[in-house]
Amino acid sequence: MTDTVASLMAEIADVGTDPTRGGYSRPVYSTAELDLRSWFVAHAERRGLDVQTDRNGIIWAWSGGVGEGAVVTGSHLDSVPGGGAYDGPLGVASSLVAFDRLAERGVLGRRAIAVFPEEEGSRFGLACLGSRLLTGAIDPDRARTLTDADGTTFAEATRRAGLDAARLGPDPETLARIGTFVELHVEQGLGLVDHDRPVAVASSILGHGRWRIGFTGEGNHAGTTLMSGRRDPMVASAVLIGDVQRLARRIPDARATVGRLVPTPGGTNVIASRVDVWLDVRHPDDAVTRVLVAEIEAAAKTAAAEQGCTVAMTEESFSATLDFDPVLRDRLADLLDDAPRLGTGAGHDAGVLKDHVSTAMLFVRNPTGVSHAPGEAVEDADAETGAEALADSLEALLGTP
Ligand code: GLV
Ligand code: MN
Ligand code: MN
Fold first, then answer.
1. What CA–CA distance (Å, rounded) separates 310 from 312?
2. Distance CA 315, CA 381 (A)
3. Residue pair 321/130 in contact by the 8 Å Cβ criterion
4. CA distance linking residue 218 with residue 237, whole number of Å
5. 337 vs 180: CA distance, rounded Å
6. Distance between the two ends of the chain, CA-based, in angstroms?
7. How much is the pLDDT for 46?
8. Residue 76: CB atoms within 10 Å
9. Which residue from 289, 372, 376 has its CB within 8 A of the most atoms of ligand 1, so it is best to mutate?
10. Are 182 and 73 spatial neighbours (Cβ–Cβ below 8 Å)?
11. How far is the CA of 259 from the centre of ligand 3 (A)?
12. What is the pLDDT of residues 331-368, one digit of tens each?
């Protein structure tokens, strides 16, 4: 194959562009993401790989026959709203090119590329849903009832994508086919720029979670309701958002974000009756995350009471801080010319798989350091270096012959 990572990325550059937000909006099982899945399947089949979609919507493309304990690479094709081009697709395109390199070297053997659905949780709210279902980290009944902004359940979206929603759930047989998993990903910071290197090996993932904070007040008329007589959940939300920043800034290494807020009914001349605020909190020490979240909950109660509102907070997900296998990490770093070892603040399917199989990640330099936004970038030469590094890693990890 003459494909390069850059040529593959160019083929999908028009899929899921978002003229309103900028960048790409490719929610799981949207037309854009389904088009990308078809694009991947066509490339895999052109390479003679055996392509199967499992009960959880994970696409597997096998060389050398399906079997246990194989070396697997891959990533995801869904995006956040208005995301960058590389978060996910870089790992998928690099996997195809890495397989080409291994085939050229005559060492492809039994390996697979996996493409995971709903890594971002941008449609159904729960990140890494495919890998969580695969590993049993989420109850399939809960997954089936997750609902997107239009009221479509994950079960329904799964059905529309041609899968049987009743079969969602833990899949030990498929999991056992992964001996080692290596995910290549765009770096989501400036670590490699600082090191002046194109590729790093991941050392850790910051613990992270999502909480939904629902403020309830009294819907009313913007013109006829006196300022003194209001129970406005939008004001409670605004106060809380300021508090989130203030509370998190006191704690070194903490990150706390409100990136989404939905007022109901959401009219310019309407005092909202309800506002839902989604909170994302991350810190290396999970106990510190818990304390910060408790402080934010207390602040939400105060803000609600001051506005005559009520509030309820629920945890939607939590993933503990994790370290990747240091032996595998160091082995790959040595192989890749003493590549830097970098921690990341972003979540990944590799993090979910890590509790079940030997797992590693490679990061490719991002000159802007921006991610989850259109400014995310990778130089073409670095993308090719990344695919070569992935091929070298996959070659070194022999897996089942
Ligand atoms: C996924 O990219 C996340 O870290 O939220
Ligand atoms: Mn990603
Ligand atoms: Mn992401």
1. 7
2. 42
3. no
4. 14
5. 21
6. 24
7. 98
8. 30
9. 372
10. yes
11. 14
12. 999 999 999 999 999 999 999 999 999 999 999 999 99
- Pull the structure tokens for residue 357: 């199989």
CA of 85 to the centre of ligand 3 (A): 11
Which tokens in the block code for residue 34? 């389904």
Using an 8 Å Cβ cutoff, are 18 and 81 in contact?
yes
Taken in order 319, 370, 259, 168, the sign of the CA dihedral is: negative
Contacts of residue 37, defined as CB under 8 A and 6 or more positions apart, other chains included, come to: 59, 77, 115
Residue whose entry in the numeric block shows the structure tokens 């989501």: 188
The three-point CA angle 216-221-222 to 5° equals 95
Report pTM.
Answer: 0.97
Neighbouring C-alpha atoms within 13 Å toward the C-beta of 68: 3
d(CA 150, CA 152): 6
Maximum distance among all Cα pairs of the chain, rounded to whole angstroms: 77
How many whole angstroms separate alpha carbon 373 and alpha carbon 380? 19
Could you say which residues of the chain have pLDDT below 70?
400-401
234-275 pLDDT, tens digit per residue, is 999 999 999 999 999 999 999 999 999 999 999 999 999 999
| Ligand 1 atom with minimal separation from the 345 CA | 4
Dist CA 193 CA 149 (whole Å): 37
Ligand positioned closest to the Cα atom of 206: 1
Residues at CB less than 6 angstroms from ligand 1: 120, 127, 346-347
Separation of CA 120 and ligand 3 centre (Å): 5
SS3 sequence, 1-62? Answer: CCCCHHHHHHHCCCCCECCCCCCECCCCCCHHHHHHHHHHHHHHHHCCCEEEECCCCCEEEE
Indicate which atom in ligand 1 lies nearest the CA of residue 371.
Answer: 2
Q: Are 81 and 120 in contact (CB under 8 A)?
A: no
| 272: DSSP letter | -
Ligand nearest to the CA of 23: 3
In whole angstroms, how far apart are CA 56 and each of 87, 155, 243?
A: 21, 11, 39
Amino acid 229: pLDDT? 86
**Number of helices and strands in the chain (H, E):** 13, 15
- What is residue 398's predicted lDDT score, i.e. its pLDDT? 83
The per-residue pLDDT for 400 is 58
